[in-house]
# Entry
Amino acid sequence: MDARIAVTGGDEVRETAELWEWLRRERELVGLVRAVPTAPAEGELGGAVEVVEVALGSGGAGAVLAGSLSTWLRTRRTDVTVTVTTPARTVTLDVRGLKPEDVTPLLREVLSGGDD
# Structure
């Protein structure tokens, strides 16, 4: 199962790239995180990163992703919204209305399909 994470609001390209870098540094997610670029526009050499995708399998990757994403969201200084999509569910988190204690359990619930 894969989880696709899209960031909207603020500087979306920068925020998405920062999320990708953040998740790539998670030891338990090494090799499971990839950037999904947009198609390049005419005259461009390459597209920007549009979505971060994480392969979730056995071994608790969903729980690790939930905790890491929760921490990343709390570090945001701009108003961003993150949408996490799995084959079974989609959840959208708005940083402005976020209570830190609510984020990790919500993400674990969304990401638990087939992982734990």
In short: The mean pLDDT is 81. The CA atoms of residues 6 and 65 lie 14 Å apart. The longest helix spans residues 61-74. The first strand starts at residue 2 and ends at 8.
